[in-house]
Design brief:
Helix content is about 40%, strand content about 20%. It has 7 helices and 9 strands, in the order H-E-E-H-E-H-E-H-E-H-E-H-E-E-E-H. Strand 3, helix 3 and strand 4 (about 90-95) form a beta-alpha-beta unit. Helix 3 packs parallel to helix 7.
Length: about 190
């Protein structure tokens, strides 16, 4: 009986964290002080890797909509310009999108990115973070290679400490508004 109750409670709690909001304004993201969940992602070569391994030290985690998004591409380029300064402050940069690994590779090559990109094409991590919202699948099917269940992430920047706890977050349901690099650097210098 105790095992059944535990299983039911686990199922209910997982269900609460795996919701996809109907619109970007209704998301419920993980907040400062909460821990990043351990979820499987894929690297640019398609290899599965857990977030506990990816986020093994202080991290600037950028969640973007996809390599097809011009606002995302600008943000990724901005992160590349300040990556060395971020590293000097003791952080790594990791970027995650719903794009399949093959499309991540295209984005990485096109933008000459040096930091790592990861795929969350099925949206498990975005849902666990509470930043996923429903979106028609038309364009998403192509870039996720048919794995996207009909979601996009609200573009988000998390700063995560070595204990995998969120120390800072920037999120805006208006996908055209992004955290500027100089603001991020100012935040990192104060943490």
């Amino acid at each position: 009986m105790k095992k059944i109750v535990t299983l039911v409670l686990f199922s209910i709690s997982f269900g609460m964290f795996s919701q996809i909001a109907d619109i970007p304004e209704n998301i419920s993201p993980l907040l400062i002080g909460e821990k990043i969940p351990n979820i499987s992602l894929r690297d640019v070569d398609g290899n599965e890797i857990k977030t506990n391994k990816i986020i093994s030290k202080k991290t600037v985690l950028v969640f973007y909509r996809g390599g097809w998004c011009p606002y995302c591409n600008s943000q990724l380029a901005d992160m590349q310009e300040i990556e060395n300064q971020i590293i000097d402050l003791g952080y790594q940069v990791i970027a995650i999108s719903p794009d399949a690994p093959s499309f991540l590779k295209q984005t990485e090559d096109k933008k000459e990115l040096k930091y790592q990109l990861f795929s969350d094409s099925e949206g498990v991590f975005a849902q666990a973070l509470g930043i996923a919202f429903k979106k028609e699948k038309s364009k998403l099917d192509k870039y996720s290679e048919g794995k996207n269940p009909g979601f996009l992430p609200v573009p988000t920047v998390y700063v995560i400490n070595e204990n995998k706890e969120i120390e800072f977050l920037y999120i805006n349901p208006n996908y055209s508004k992004r955290l500027e690099g100089n603001v991020l650097l100012a935040v990192l210098k104060t943490l």
